[in-house]
Each structure stands twice: as C-alpha cells, then as structure tokens.
Specification:
4-stranded antiparallel sheet
Length: 366
C-alpha cells in the first residue's frame, strides 16, 4: 500500500513538473520578475535586453549581452553563453543560438555544441536544423544526437528546407527530390519535384508533387487531397488548411477533408492545432469540422496555443476560446496588450501592475 501511494505521489509530481510554465515579465520600474504557479519572484532589479519565452527555463539576454537561463524549480540564474551571442531562436523547451561561427543548443539542462561553422539554422519543438558549412551537409539535432540529412555541397544560397514542430522537409534542387525527416527516419516523398511547394507541421507535412498533385503525409502514409495544386496551404499539428482552385477553404484532419467556405476567405492561418479565418468580415475558427464564428470583427491582436485562441475584443477586454467555448478573462477593458505563456495569460493593469490569469484564477504583482 505504501509503495502504491509513493508511486502515485511521484506520478503526480512528474505531471506537475511537465505542466509547469514560468511566465517572465518586466515591470515599469525595470524589475525583472517570474511567475510560477501563483508565486512571484524578482529575478533582477534591471530589465533584461531581451526575453525568449517558452516552456521550461526562462531564457534572457542580460545587460552584458550574455545569454542566461533560470531553471524550472532550482531558481538559479545560470550563464549559457558569454558574449558574443547572435540569432537566438526558441521553440518549446529548445533554445539555439550562434556564438561567432559556432551553433549551440540548450536542452535537458545542458549546452550542446552542434557545429563549429554554422550557416542558417531553424528550431522546432523537438529538433534543430542547420547547415554545417565545414562538412557541407544539412544536419538535424534530434533527441540529443546529430544526423546527416543530405550532402549539400557549397552551392550559393545554401540548402532549402522548412521544418515544423517535429518534421523537416528538404528540397534537393539539383535532383528534384523532396526528403522528409520525422522522428529519426528519412523518407523520400518525391523524386520528380522541380519546385518546392511544401508545408511542415507536427507529425504531418503537405506538398505538391511533380505531377501537380496535392499530397499529405501523416501516420497513414501518403494521401492525395487533390489532383490540382491548391492556391494556398498551411500545416499545423495534425491538420492542413488550404484553398482549392475554386477559392473554397478546406481542412484536412484525421484522414478526412471538410469544406468550410463556399467563397475565398479574406485570410486564413493554421497555428498549432487550430485554423482561424476571415469570411465576409467575420472572424471564425474550425471546430469538429464545422465553422464557428468567434467575432463579427477582426481582433486587433490574437494568439493561438494548441487548441486555444486568445484575443482582444472591441472593448479591449481579453477573451479565450477552447473547443468553441468562449470565456472572458477580464471584467473590464482598455487593455493595451497581453501575452500567452502555455495556459497562462499575462496582461498589464491600469496602474502599472501585472496580472497572470490561469484556469479561472488571477494573480497580481505590484
């Protein structure tokens, strides 16, 4: 019985750790503060030069232009990189940067050197993609190891690729080949693609092949969505949004395609697992294969995290929609901005204070 209780306690503790989201912010007087599940802590009396928010550690550039991290529970400020620091990119828990010609990544509490002569690089939630100039190769860092995706020679302009949260698409222009990297494996999607019209998401990619067919690859394999290329398309976590040649907005999810509009939307965007679009002036989203109107007006500012949409309404109050259920986070309006950090929402008070809303509870720091 005691061992079972200990196991349940460890599972609950691990679940709390995974869900933890630190929220960093600067006060009007310059103090640098972090919020952690209802508790505020002043990290410094002077605001950093830049903050790189994401799941896990708080990462920031201090006034000596060094890259620093505040670990989740340890509350210790740790130096990741002394100057020079250039081109810091973050996605989820991964933070990568260039120092001189070297490319480094911070993951799992450690700093890893990926290349001594790095060109362009990009970051997803679980991978870092980079051009290793010394080896003339396109490489990917995934689960603590580096894999070679392709030999790219020393051609002008460097290799062409695009990545999603855990997918990478590389277009070999000389051979017309389109190659996918996903969860440690390489897959040839097309060997007759002279052009690269692609979109990479999470566990899913979409592309137009050499015969102008619109294809999607996911755990089901390759499926043809249309015999003609779409006008536009975007990929997210398990879904693809696209406009067909007739201008209709359609969405692919879980092996099925549904049509959301009969006419061309003014705009659409796929973010994480969510599709939002504007049709006839109304701001809408897709829920369960159907169109749902969020507002008759396009919001000034909105953010998507997972399946949740947060936005400023006409009164500049803050609203949130999850699964089609809309709630208002603030009782009044006139809020100039907000930031979404995981499930938490940071926004300023009217007297300089800072509010953090999460799960119906609002904490305030003065």
């Amino acid at each position: 019985m005691i061992r079972a209780l200990q196991l349940l306690f460890l599972i609950a503790l691990a679940s709390h750790g995974r869900a933890q989201q630190l929220v960093p912010f600067s006060m009007p007087d310059g103090r640098f503060v972090a919020w952690d599940q209802g508790r505020f802590e002043v990290l410094a009396e002077q605001a950093p030069r830049a903050i790189y928010p994401g799941a896990g550690p708080v990462v920031f550039l201090d006034h000596q232009e060094g890259l620093m991290a505040v670990e989740d529970e340890l509350r210790k400020v740790r130096s990741l990189q002394r100057p020079p620091v250039d081109t810091v990119l973050r996605s989820g828990r991964l933070v990568a940067w260039r120092s001189g010609d070297s490319l480094k990544v911070h993951a799992g509490g450690r700093v890893h050197v990926l290349a001594g002569q790095a060109g362009r690089f990009t970051v997803g939630d679980s991978l870092v993609v980079f051009h290793d100039k010394a080896d003339a190769q396109l490489k990917v860092w995934w689960r603590g190891g580096v894999q070679v995706v392709a030999e790219v020679g020393r051609e002008a302009g460097g290799p062409q690729w695009v990545n999603g949260s855990n997918t990478l698409l590389f277009h070999d222009r000389s051979a017309g080949r389109l190659v996918l990297f996903h969860r440690g494996g390489l897959h040839l999607l097309c060997d007759d693609c002279p052009n690269a019209r692609v979109a990479a998401g999470g566990d899913l990619v979409a592309y137009v092949d050499g015969q102008d067919r619109f294809q999607v690859w996911d755990h089901r394999g390759v499926q043809e969505l249309s015999g003609a290329p779409p006008r536009q398309f975007q990929a997210g976590l398990g879904l693809v949004g696209f406009t067909d040649l007739a201008g209709r907005l359609r969405v692919y999810r879980d092996g099925e395609v549904v049509t959301l509009t009969d006419t061309m939307p003014s705009m659409f965007r796929v973010s994480d697992s969510t599709l939002v679009f504007v049709e006839r002036g109304a701001w809408r989203t897709e829920v369960g294969g159907s169109s749902l109107t969020l507002s008759e007006h396009i919001p000034e500012h909105w953010e998507v995290r997972g399946g949740t949409i947060t936005w400023l309404d006409l009164d500049r109050g803050i609203r949130r929609s999850t699964g089609g259920r809309v709630v208002r986070l603030t009782k009044d309006g006139a809020y100039p901005w907000f930031e979404v950090h995981g499930q938490a929402v940071l926004f300023p008070g009217h007297r300089g204070e800072r509010f953090i809303w999460q799960d119906g509870r609002t904490d305030v720091f003065y």
